[in-house]
Amino acid sequence: DRVSMYITSVPYESWEVTPATRDERRMMNIAGKGHNTGDIAYGFIFKVFREKHWLPFNFGIRAHAKTTTGGELNNARSTDNSLYQWEGNFSKTIVDREKEKFLLKASLGFVTWQTDNNSLPGGSRHKQNDAPYYGFGVEYLNHSWSFGSDIVGYTGYIGNRDYPHFLRTQAQYRT
């Protein structure tokens, strides 16, 4: 109940992009389609504090890594570069009833990754990029229904499209 480990990968992927996307990503395959394998990512999540035991909120730490096992770097699929991420996760239960729960959560961390050092227009002159990682979300559970939404992202210092932000939303029904 204190530590979990996970491993994820895309064992096989087929892809097809439009000519405009192919050109924007500087893909080498003229047809804009193909197949490959993805990177393997793994990590550990450590539950440090449980709500109402030592602190009035939950706190956990996640250590995440991505390997360079993917292929098709020349077609902008897997990066073939490693990535490391460390983050602290905070959550606080606002509503805690027998069949209903409402949870606020936040993440703060740091991510670092290798870049492709190249002299292409808009390319990177650096071998590494680093960024603060941040996120905020909510979870709502009501009997058989579960809803959650997160806004997460990071902002790298190179400024080469290294500032993605994501909105993830999930609805789930369990019988």
Strand content: over 45%
- Net shape: globular
Number of distinct helices: 1
Indicate the radius of gyration in whole angstroms: 20 Å
Flag low-confidence runs: none
Please estimate the helix content.
Answer: under 10%
Head-to-tail CA distance between termini: 24 Å
Please list the strands of the largest sheet in the order they lie side by side.
Answer: 1-4-5-6-7-8-9-10
Rounded mean pLDDT is 87
Assign the structural class, choosing from mainly alpha, mainly beta, alpha/beta, alpha+beta, or little secondary structure: mainly beta
Largest sheet: 8 strands, antiparallel
What's the count of strands? 10
| Helix/strand order | EEHEEEEEEEE
Report what the structure shows.
By secondary structure, this protein is mainly beta. It has 1 helix and 10 strands; from the N terminus they run ββαββββββββ. The protein has an 8-stranded antiparallel sheet with strand order 1-4-5-6-7-8-9-10, with no helix packed on it. The protein has a two-stranded antiparallel ribbon with strand order 2-3. A hairpin with a 3-residue loop joins strand 6 and strand 7. The longest helix has 6 residues, at 19-24. 8% of the residues are buried. The model has no long low-confidence stretch (mean pLDDT 87).
